[in-house]
Structures are given as structure tokens and as C-alpha cells.
Amino acid sequence: MRPPRASRAELLGLLSSTGVDLPPKTKLTDAELDKLLCKVLDSVQYLTRVVPTPPLDPAAYPPWSSNGSDTPVLEAIKRHNYGEATMIEVSEMYGKGDPFPRLYTNAFNDLRQTLMTIANACDQGMTPLTFQDKGESSGICMRVLDVRHFDDKTPIVVVVYQHDLKDALTPASFEWISSYVSGTAGSNFMAHVTATVQEQHLLLRLLHNNRKRLASSYKPKRAATESSFTLSFLLPVGPLGADEMGKYNANNGCAVCGRPAKQKCSRCGAVRYCDAVCQKDDWKAHRPLCDSWQGAKWQSLKFVSSMRPAPNTLAFRFSKYDNAQHKDAQKRLDRMTENAEDDGPPPNTHGTTPFIVKVQLNSSMAKGPAHTLFRSDPSHDEMEMLIYDQRRTFEVTVHRKDLEEAAFAAVQQVLKKGDRGLKMFLWATRTAEWTIDVCLDKLPEWQKW
């Protein structure tokens, strides 16, 4: 059973809900957008950990209940990054605030919440579930058949499901629902979940993609009313990590469509386009910034990886986007200490389009977000700037020694004029693998991140 076809706008909206924000007029085809969404959904499941070489036979893993742990499926299926973990901890400590946005505003976060509802059904004895939007235009019937133990933090939830539209309820779905309502299925309890059409689309995509990865020999017992239902499995789903965010948000240049940029705005010189068509399409949106950037002063900065906050120093910075359950931060730390080398320049997720960065002036010996692993000359102290964007896909260090004194001093003076300490938000453009230009006199509004 294939998921319903999504329009181009819906595909872009679903991708955006996961954190992949493509240019609104991207020239990727609908088929390419569809393929990208499938890749993203594989990433948020950490699919290759569980199914490195399909097919998957759940019967090869022990039942969850016999794994020697009393961890509920609900607890094991939760996934969050360090940023969310901090918000959850603060919420629990002070009894206020919600670490997640309210329901029905983000399809991907709604999906994560729904997976916890499914996990809770597992803990309650495999309760059957129905999912339906408020307008009752789309619905899914589902029952958990089994839960297998991949590892202590990763259950494999085996399900059967059926998708129906309001005006096309299948006899099989009607019979299945009736069997539980009447109690003939052995229970008259069924969990009803309100799920938007967009959330259902993501859930159906997961189920459709995963069903193809099941071993054909795997045939768990199902009820007679479920003979036409589709067999699949679900894994824990968490937010995209920093590396995935950078990979999927990569921009090749054009501010409108993301294709390689061949020309730039002749008025401000700050925004680039692939052709005159995209430039014309963007003029209405670009004009206010273009006007404000007339005669702006831009300063070129050479940067290094944020893992090198000072010469002869290797530092490790925790990212709030690292997955807490899979120890992403620890794995990066292990790679660093083993290789003691950089991974190359950060991915270019902005192309040549101006973006907002936070610039923080500090000393390499000062306390801060960097955790120094080793330094060959601990007496050495050097002024530096930490520069990063909102999603931390771009996080770099600028050393005073790598710039002409006037260049570093120019940015330093801008920071000192601010009223928030030695930090400031600036417009920036990526000009090469290891350089950016920052605007010194046309400042964006103060950002809340």
C-alpha cells in the first residue's frame, strides 16, 4: 500500500517540519523531493544501525519482554537531542514550560509524539489504534503484533496497518473496527489518536519504506480481520543531528532555487542567483535588504574549525543537535581523540546567500562552550572569535593571528559597541571554504537563540 501522493507544496512542508528548509523555489523535481524525504526519514530512524543490510527478520531478535530489562517501550522509544534534553530537565525541575511545541503545528514533532502513544499501547497489552484527522478525511487502522529487542534503547515495533480515506472506507477496515467495538476480537477497547493529514503522511511513509525491508519469510500471526492489512515495523524517531542538517540543507548558491550561482545583485553585491529569472522572482523580497545594504561595509574573515580554538589546541564542543540516546557527542569525541585532526570545512548550507551569525569574542583560556582536550603550550593565550549560525551547521573559530590587525580590530570594535557583552549578531556570506564576509554596519535585529 503506497502512501497518498503529496503535492509539491506538501513535500516542501513535510521536509521543513523535519528541519530541512529548501529554497521555496527549488528546482528539484517532485520525484527528487520525494526521494529526499525518504532519505530524511531513514536518517531520523537511525535506520542503518538496525538494518545495515536488508532484509530485517524481527524473529532473529528476542522479544522485548524477555530482554532482562524492565524498561517500558514508551521510555525506550523516546529520542531527543541534547538541546531538547536540557529543556525537558528544566521543565521537570521547575514544573513549567513544555520542551515541545504545541500539537498540530509541526507534522514531524506530532509524529514523534504519536510514536510514544503507540509505544504506550505496547506497554498496555498491544492495544489497537486508529488515527484520524479532525475533519475525518483520512484515517489509519493499526495494531502492534510484536515488539523485539534490538538493544536496550531500541525496540523494533512490528505492526499491521490499513489506510483509508473518508469516502473510501474498505470493508476490511470496517470489519476490523467493528470487531473491537463489539468485543468479538476479545477486547472492546481501542485507542483513538487525532493526527493531521500531514502527520499521517509521514507515518505512512515510514511504514511503506520499512515494509520493503522486512524479510519475506517473516510472517507473524495476525487476526482474521487483518488478512488484507500491510505488515511493517517502526523504530524510534528523533530529530536530525547537526551533520544531517548540514547535508540535507546544503545550498549550491542561488538564493531562490539553490542551484549554482552565476551572477550577483549589481546593487548590493551580497546576494547571488543562478540566472536572471531567479533574480527577478526574488526582487520583491530582496529589495528591503538590498536597500539597507547600499554602501555597507563588509569585512572578510579567515576561519578555522571550531575544534581548533587556538594553535596547538584541540577542543570539543557539544552540539545541542547531537542525539542523546545514541551518544553522538561521545562518538565525535572518540573520532577526534583517535585522529587528532579536523574533518575539513563545515558544509555550506547557505550557499552565497547572506545569513545571520552570532559572533562571540573570547579568550582561548577563558571558560566557555569549548572543552579543551589537550594543548601543547598551556601558557599560550590568544584572542579569538567563535562564529555560528542558528542551527550550528556552521560553527567556526577566527584567530586574531590569522588576520591583519585592522581586520580583527574592526569586528572587535563592533562587538564592543553592543549592549549584550562581547557578542553580536551580524549578517554574513560564505565566500570560500575557509572564509566568510561579515557586515559591520548594517546589523540584523537581536535574535533569540
UniProtKB/TrEMBL annotation:
Record's compositionally biased regions (Basic and acidic residues): 329-338
GO CC aspect terms: nucleus
Coiled coil start-end: none
Annotated region (Disordered), positions in chain: 329-354
Keywords: Metal-binding, Zinc, Zinc-finger
Classification via InterPro entries: TF_DEAF-1, Znf_MYND
Highest rank taxon of the organism: Eukaryota
Pfam families cross-referenced by the UniProt entry: zf-MYND
Residue stretches making up the MYND-type domain: 254-290
GO molecular function, one term: DNA-binding transcription factor activity, RNA polymerase II-specific
Matches recorded under PANTHER family: DEFORMED EPIDERMAL AUTOREGULATORY FACTOR 1 HOMOLOG SUPPRESSIN (PTHR10237), LD37257P (PTHR10237:SF15)
Stated name of the protein: MYND-type domain-containing protein
